[in-house]
Design brief:
This protein is an alpha/beta fold. Helices cover 43% and strands 15% of the residues. A seven-stranded parallel beta sheet has the order 3-2-1-4-5-6-7, sandwiched between helices. Helix 3 packs parallel to helix 4 and helix 4 runs parallel beside helix 5. The structure holds NADP nicotinamide-adenine-dinucleotide phosphate (NAP). The site of NADP nicotinamide-adenine-dinucleotide phosphate (NAP) has 28 residues, from helix 1.
Length: 255
């Protein structure tokens, strides 16, 4: 098999300015895909695009705030104009939505659902329309990969709103997979355990965070690269029989 299994494919990664999204953009590019990196912090996107370019990859930075639903379609059009027909969407942008119920603000609640649920849903819808129109779906190459969380199936401390949003993300993954089975768009989710990124680094620096890590069976957080294989499998050409699947990768943290 080619060492560039995604050669000729075009991928979009939302929330590519840091953490897991940044990693996903590099992994997809290293596998041969042209990649559109989207997020609000465009300076960070530009430096990742430069880093990918330096490795010989093809990438573009496209500003997108997924809370602005009307901006999602035009951002995908910009990606297609620059790179060609999209066949992989990684719906990764997410916010922590943390806080105890007694302290939760309406703004944080609404933002969590606007990014983690509404942004994922309309991102998928806008991508699916383009995958069908371009013929990518007909060729069996259309992949939507939502980044949910173990929070979809577990109550994590102080994260009830985040957990509800990720449960909704997991449910939508199955709903859209069912709805788009015929047009052959595969919709799946990766549900990671805790990996230290900007979303949680403040927490893990606290005594409570350190105590939580000691409570995990392996007493550790996961490394950023542990999702690479799952991502490549779901994006790959041979994965067209995998749809509506939620893949948990959590180092046993929830056992
Ligand atoms: N780290 C973990 O332990 C873990 C575990 C399970 C699931 N996840 C999920 O993995 C995904 C990535 O999180 P991460 O850990 O990599 O955290 P992160 O480093 O904080 O990254 C979050 C990304 O989402 C983007 N984002 C946030 N709001 C956005 C908006 N309104 N529009 C566009 N982009 C937005 C951010 O970019 P800008 O601020 O530049 O817009 C950033 O690139 C999230 O969905 C998270 O829930 C993380």
């Amino acid at each position: 098999m080619s060492d560039k299994p995604l050669a000729g494919r075009v991928a979009v990664v939302t929330g590519a300015s840091s953490g897991l999204g940044r990693r996903f953009a590099h992994v997809l590019s290293d596998a041969g895909a042209a990649v559109a990196l989207m997020a609000r912090r465009t300076d960070r996107l530009e430096s990742e695009v430069a880093a990918i370019g330096a490795k010989g990859g093809r990438a573009v930075a496209i500003p997108l705030d997924v809370e602005d639903v009307a901006a999602i379609g035009p951002a995908l059009d910009a990606a297609q104009d620059a790179l060609g027909s999209i066949s992989i969407l990684v719906n990764n942008a997410g916010v922590g939505g943390d806080g105890m119920a007694m302290d939760m603000s309406v703004e944080t609640f609404d933002q969590t659902f606007a990014v983690n649920v509404r942004g994922v849903y309309f991102g998928a819808v806008e991508a699916a329309k383009r995958m069908i129109a371009s013929g990518v779906a007909e060729r069996g190459e259309a992949r939507i990969i939502n980044i949910a969380s173990i929070a979809a199936f577990n109550q994590l401390p102080g994260l009830s709103v985040y957990c509800a949003s990720k449960a909704a993300c997991a449910s939508l993954t199955k709903g859209l997979a069912r709805e788009w089975a015929r047009p052959r768009i595969a919709v799946n989710a990766i549900c990671p355990g805790y990996i230290e990124t900007e979303i949680n680094s403040d927490w893990f620096a606290t005594e409570g965070g350190q105590k939580q890590i000691k409570g995990f069976p392996r007493r550790r957080l996961m490394d950023e690269d542990v999702l690479d294989e799952a991502l490549l499998m779901l994006a790959g050409r041979r994965a067209h029989f995998i749809t509506g699947t939620l893949i948990s990768l959590d180092d046993g943290q929830t056992l």
